[in-house]
Write a structure and sequence with these properties.
The structure holds two protein chains of two kinds.
Chain A lengths: L21 H30 L11 H34 L1 H9 L4 H26 L4 H17 L9 H11 L7 H34 L2 H6 L5 H33 L14 E5 L1 E5 L18 E4 L7 E6 L11 E6 L2 E4 L2 H4 L4 E8 L8 H13 L6 H12 L1 E9 L5 E6 L1 H7 L2 H5 L8 E7 L4 E5 L4 E7 L2 H27 L4 H16 L1 H8 L8 H10 L11 H21 L11 H6 L5 H27 L6
Antiparallel strand pairs in A: 1-12, 2-4, 3-11, 4-10, 5-9, 5-12, 6-11, 7-8, 7-10
Chain B lengths: L4 E13 L5 E14 L3 E5 L6 H9 L6 E6 L2 E2 L9 E4 L11 H11 L4 H15 L14 H12 L6 E5 L7 H16 L3 E6 L2 H7 L2 E6 L2 E7 H5 L4 E7 L5 H13 L2 E7 L5 H14 L15 H4 L1 E8 L4
Parallel strand pairs in B: 3-8, 3-9, 6-7, 7-8
Antiparallel strand pairs in B: 1-2, 1-4, 4-5, 9-10, 11-13, 12-13
The chains are: A alpha+beta, B alpha/beta.
Bound molecules: adenosine-5'-triphosphate (ATP) and magnesium ion.
The site of magnesium ion (MG) has 4 residues of chain B, from helix 1.
């Protein structure tokens, strides 16, 4: 069901990274990168001991650097040993006990182990990054810019930009080769524009960056550069900066052109409500309520398990519940707050229900509401209506919502996957502000609002996911959002250029390009590999699957206990642990793809952008360190 | 004075290896050299004798397999030393999509020079190397000699103390060769130290103060050019104003016999082709309409007609 969805149903299979995730992300970054750093330092130590140092290669380090290095190496060694002491007994124990094993597969280390691993990683990073950090102070912007400018001029004089002329194909023929479904017209345009830009820019950037340093070495032009007072790493940074500048300019031009193209195109009247939007949504946390304890929503057997379902009917007890915490206080100053949603309908009685709508009721409450008030609430509503000069329905709802903290929207007809909406009176948010919770703790001014959704129609199911219902905070500009989407692509470009330049400090142009593409495409299927690493796929890891294949067992029954089975399980645990570490070599490319947001008309927040820039920096930094060492140890003339 | 040693190598050796660490070629074996401030030092040797390898080791383009190299008091791997070095590679490996001005500007930036400094320095050097008319053309269109000139300009951009030239005269016509040699001598007179390598013996002989001769990566000979080339057993003499007659020959032979020597050869010297070439070019410049007409061979120049060359060998032991 994932294809051909019209309108604004934003599917976010993964929660976007938020600021709250940063500390844990940072810790795991230190662990993983530190692991690689430790391996690097170890290799260096071995090489140092085996080869006997060549004094001629580098100047001697000053004393303080030697001390820091030594302390870091010792610190890292001790921490890793401590980690081993804590980890191994548990690992051995887990072999005997299946439950511990499962826990370990899901989460490698307890807090103590995690701290030890982080400490060790930090020490290893310090040892490996010391020389890198010190040499950063020797970099000079003018030299870096000289090399950047050179890359830029080269691309210009070599007429690289003709490659971008292919983008014209999109503008000229978009109407021909794109399917014409009026309602999804804009979405298709946006997606195609981004896709064609991405493919063209990424491939060009990858090629340019992969071949620059190898070509310099091949044509020996690098000889006249490294014999000037240029730090080797300045060449790497200069190339990176040059291509990033070039690609930024190109991307900006292309984005403007695409935007003009999209804006000028007539949009089908049916699609107007949904087009050119940039909603700023406020999401709640989704929970389910039902008779069963711990009800998590029904599964209706659809292959795609993104949504969970609630059963409908006059007496149904199943509810989808969105809890809005920390809503901004500005909501109370508005006259109303739109609530938009798009659900999936699963019909169990197809034939006779065809043509008949499915209805839902939405109920909003604040902590001030108690069900005991319902009678008062309904009575007061009737009274208001029968007054001589009755207020409008909206005014009544607003007034009562403010008084009771309750609002109900009855029997809204639901259409499959179409964004629908109604207005929630602002009185509700004013009421939430006055809640006891807010009074008890003034720091927690943020109101709490809970929305219940119930399906009225018998024998129908409503499928919901967290992002299917939201309160509309504001409306941004589509054009601005389009550019924000381009920033996501810019991140991918930086990533490709960075990796390609780093690879090319050691590898030949072709190989660097292949490596870069491998990493990038690997990044695209990272999700699948992650499932494999976390043991989410059915049939277990590679060894277990193989065993099942050999024994002709099916994928879901537990393995018979046998020596082979336990070997397979141990192997799989180790394999997964290893894979999880290795996985981090692959960039999380999908995270930088904001197409969905732009196409479906959701605003990309500045915080979202900032976090992704951080993620980018976190990914590229180890590559930079690697490039630094490779470039420095390279004999450019052989 | 140790302070005046600009370049020093101690047992410098280089073995080229392939990816797997197998030996491909021992290009330099235990080289010991010292180059003093203010001299022109020549590295001489046939093709593949390790001259370029030595220079690359000194510049840190290659890392030595064993031994050490010090340049301007620093190890070869230290980039700071490059502030005071100018290097002209064997071929001018420059960016072919830049023009002369842009090239010099680019290298000026690498020395962290300001825009103003770069501009004045670039114009100065373009003037010196005689590329003023072609400074806006991209290097792709340059001839070999022009590239060599811009390469030299690039090497001089930082007014270096030590200038390393790998085959500076390759690709230059005799006029250019002479110009290059004169420039090298001028630089020496300004107090620069120059290390050049070549297999063109005449070049080395004309300009170098000291030479090292390499063969198959081994140092064969090292010393002052004048001492190396002087043949103490022979005497040469050049005279003008007389014509060669049998009488003169007899008289000279008598004089030499009296001093215990022996006349070996006597005749008019031939000029070198280089001199002839230079003269013709100079004359063509002076008389623009001049061209060679068939059957009208160039007249013998007057200046050489009157001079006579005597070669005398001393008979040993008398
Ligand atoms: N990158 C390399 N890999 C393998 N062998 C090399 C490499 N560079 C040079 N050599 C070998 O090292 C030896 C010395 O080479 P080098 O370039 O120093 O000679 P040269 O004296 O400069 O010669 P020429 O007068 O031709 O320039 C040669 O035998 C050459 O084949
Ligand atoms: Mg050579």
């Amino acid at each position: 069901m994932s294809s051909g969805l019209p309108f604004a149903v934003m599917v976010l299979e993964r929660e976007p990274i938020t600021l709250d995730d940063l500390p844990s992300k940072l810790a795991s970054w230190v662990q993983d990168v530190g692991g690689f750093a430790a391996i690097g330092v170890l290799c260096w130590l071995i090489a140092y001991l085996v080869q006997r140092p060549r004094q001629n290669r580098q100047q001697a380090w000053p004393a303080w650097m030697r001390i820091v290095f030594l302390v870091s190496v010792i610190g890292a060694t001790l921490s890793y040993i401590a980690f081993g002491i804590v980890f191994i007994p548990e690992f051995v124990a887990s072999l005997a006990d299946d439950a511990t094993m499962k826990a370990m597969v899901a989460n490698t280390a307890g807090p103590a182990q995690s701290t030890l691993l982080t400490t060790a990683g930090a020490f290893a990073l310090c040892a490996a990054g010391l020389s890198f950090v010190v040499s950063m102070f020797k970099l000079r912007p003018r030299r870096i810019w000289a090399i950047a400018h050179l890359s830029f001029t080269e691309a210009r004089r070599r007429k690289v930009y003709w490659a971008f002329a292919f983008m014209l194909l999109f503008f000229l023929f978009a109407d021909w080769f794109l399917p014409h479904k009026p309602e999804s017209q804009l979405q298709v345009y946006v997606e195609t524009a981004y896709l064609s830009m991405a493919v063209m820019l990424l491939v060009t950037a990858g090629l340019l960056a992969s071949f620059s340093i190898p070509n310099d070495i091949r044509h020996q032009t690098i000889h006249t550069i490294v014999t000037k007072p240029v730090e080797r790493f300045e060449i790497v940074v200069g190339r990176f900066a040059g291509y990033v500048t070039l690609m930024t300019v190109t991307l900006a031009l292309m984005a403007v052109a695409s935007l003009i193209f999209i804006q000028l195109h007539a949009i089908h009247p049916d699609a107007e409500f949904e087009s050119y939007r940039a909603r700023v949504p406020l999401y709640g946390d989704l929970q389910f309520q039902g008779k069963k304890e711990g009800f998590q929503g029904e599964s209706v057997g659809r292959e795609w398990e993104y949504r969970r379902y609630i059963a409908g009917g006059p007496n149904t007890t199943q509810r989808a519940v969105w809890i809005f915490r920390d809503l901004p206080t500005r909501l109370k100053d508005r006259s109303d707050v739109p609530c938009e949603f798009a659900f999936d309908i699963f019909r169990t009685r197809k034939a006779d229900q065809e043509g008949q709508g499915v209805f839902c009721t939405f109920t909003f409450m604040t902590p001030n509401w108690t069900p005991a008030n319902l009678r008062d609430f309904e009575r007061e509503r009737e009274e208001e209506k029968t007054k001589p000069n009755p207020l409008t329905d909206e005014q009544i709802a607003d007034k009562l919502a403010e008084k009771y903290g309750y609002f109900e929207f009855r029997s809204k007809e639901i259409t499959d996957y179409h964004t629908l909406g109604f207005k929630v009176p602002a009185g509700l948010f004013r009421n939430a502000q006055k809640s006891e919770r807010a009074e008890r703790d003034p720091s927690k001014k943020a109101p709490l609002v809970v929305a219940f959704v119930r399906c009225e129609s018998a024998s129908q199911f409503i499928g919901v996911a967290r992002h299917d219902l939201y309160l509309l905070d504001a409306e941004g500009y589509f054009s601005l959002n389009f550019f924000k989407g381009a920033i996501g692509m810019w991140c991918s470009l930086c990533l490709v250029i960075g990796v390609a330049v780093a690879c090319s400090t050691y590898l030949s142009g072709v190989i660097s390009f292949v490596c870069t593409m491998f990493l990038f495409l690997g990044g695209l299927v990272r999700g699948f590999m992650q499932d494999l690493a976390f043991g989410r796929t059915e049939g277990g890891g590679p060894a277990e699957s193989f065993l099942r294949l050999v024994n002709a067992q099916n994928q879901v029954t537990p393995l018979d206990p046998s020596p082979a089975a336990s070997v397979a399980t141990v192997y799989d645990v180790a394999f997964r642990w290893f894979l999880r570490r290795i996985l981090n070599i692959f960039p999380d490319v999908e995270a930088f793809d904001f197409t969905e947001f732009v196409a479906k008309g959701f605003d990309i927040s500045m915080g979202h952008l900032a976090i992704h820039l951080l993620v980018l920096a976190g990914y590229l930094l180890p590559w930079a360190v690697l490039a630094y060492y490779l470039m420095r140890s390279r004999e450019v003339a052989s | 004075m140790a302070n005046d040693v600009i370049v020093e190598t101690r047992n410098l050796s280089k073995i080229y290896r392939d990816f797997w660490g197998r030996q491909k070629k021992r290009a330099l074996n235990s080289l010991n050299l010292q180059i003093q401030r203010g001299e022109i030092f020549g590295l001489l040797g046939p093709n593949g004798s390790g001259k370029t390898t030595t220079i690359k080791l000194l510049l840190g383009l290659l890392f030595p397999t064993s031994g050490e190299a010090f340049v301007l008091g620093e190890t070869a791997a230290n980039v700071r030393k490059n502030e005071r070095i100018g290097y002209l590679p064997e071929e001018s490996y420059l960016y072919r999509f830049l023009n002369a001005e842009e090239t010099l500007d680019f290298y000026g930036r690498l020395f962290n020079m300001t825009a103003e400094q770069r501009r004045t320095r670039a114009q100065e050097l373009i003037e010196i190397v005689g590329l003023k008319a072609d400074k806006r053309r991209i290097l792709k269109e340059y001839s070999k000699g022009m590239r060599q000139r811009i390469g030299l300009a690039q090497a001089l951009i930082n007014d270096p103390e030590l200038i390393i030239l790998d085959e500076p005269t390759s690709g230059l016509d005799p006029l250019g060769t002479r110009w290059m040699k004169d420039l090298i001598l001028q630089l020496r007179d300004k107090g620069k130290t120059i290390l050049m390598c070549s297999h063109r013996l005449d070049d080395v002989q004309d300009v170098c103060d000291r030479v090292a001769i390499l063969y198959e990566g081994e140092l064969q000979e090292l010393g002052k050019v004048s001492t190396l080339l002087e043949d103490a057993n022979k005497l040469a003499m050049q005279a003008s104003g007389v014509r060669l007659t049998d009488e003169l020959r007899r008289d000279l032979d008598d004089v030499l016999r009296r001093h215990g020597g022996k006349l070996e050869s006597l005749g008019h010297p031939t000029t070198t082709l280089e001199d002839l070439f230079l003269r013709i070019v100079a004359e063509s410049k002076a008389h623009p309409g001049r061209r060679y007409l068939p059957g009208c061979e160039t007249a013998k120049p007057e200046s050489t007609a009157g001079s006579t060359l005597i070669k005398e060998g001393k008979s040993a032991g008398s």
